[in-house]
Amino acid sequence: MCQQATPCGMRRPSKLFAGAALLSSFVTAVTSADTDTDSSKRGIAYLGTNHNNDYNIFLSGQSPLTWYYNWSPYPVRNPSSFRNIEFVPLIHNIDSLPADIRQLSNLPSSSTHLLSFNEPDHGTSGGGSDISPSDAAGAYIDSIAPLSVANGGNFLISHPSTTGTLSGLSWLRQFNTSCYAINTTHGCHTDFLATHFYGDFPALASWLGTLNEYYNTNTGSDLPIWITELALPQMSAQRTERMMNTTLPYLDGLGYLGRYSWFGIFREENANEWTGDGVALLDDSGDLTALGAMYLGSGFAEGESANSSPGGSGGGGGGNKGGAVAVGGGSNLALVVGVGVLSCVVGSMV
Questions:
Q1: Quick one: signal sequence residues (predicted)?
Q2: pLDDT tens by residue, 132-165
Q3: Distances from the Cα of 57 to the Cα of 54, 244, 296, 305, 310, angstroms
Q4: pTM of the predicted model, to two decimals?
């Protein structure tokens, strides 16, 4: 992570060839996880529903969850126990940029990280911000980069959060090219990366390896990567449980993986058509599903009510979706990378 006083960021990345790189990245990613695990990386991707008390168990003193975000710079007010964990603001798009920047000054000092531009590689009808790489680069250098602690600001800032797809990777490459066209020395300074991913474990590991190779291995940087939307859509609960059982310890032990949040903490009835109800951490009675108990970890059980009161003042640490893209490697291997696009109305959740 770059902390120097002058503007800084990743060095100019080299061109990445998708097929062979994805296969190589998968092998590297799977073998690079540490044996020690850290469940405090886990957080909450907050979606407003009519069941505010469902979040109580995730905010309890026994919960490992340490942070949350809600696709906006405005923190959640109800339940009030959300203030016990770190709120991570997100500047969703460039249309509301001036007002969103002003709102950042109202946040508590515990908000130390800032996410930028939600899915700029995808359309607004699916929750994306639909920003061209060149427009995003200009807005980022003018308004986001100055907010970094490296430039005298108050936040550690991320590059825009793209979908975990080849289109997302292409967008990031064009974004960085545009950044260096504006600032030939530093490009667009960033302190960490954020991404979305919908798919099974092998494709997830490959995607993370690809990002790490592009931003870190190829440039000599050491930027943490966050996954701010993560799920296995349109699969049975049992299939999703197997995916999560493999994924959580891997992410907890992966050195360059900074934080992640599952999509989603809601009841099965609140799941959208694209994700399917297999991703839900709560059943329709507001009790933990097996998946929900797994996400919270040791001490939590399937069927436990989510409406129980938080146990203490501090958290224990706390639309439509696109289809899938088959990525061909140098052999006959095909990795499936899910297209992640959030279907929510940003700003209506506060």
A1: 1-32
A2: 999 999 999 999 999 999 999 999 999 999 999 9
A3: 7, 19, 9, 8, 6
A4: 0.81
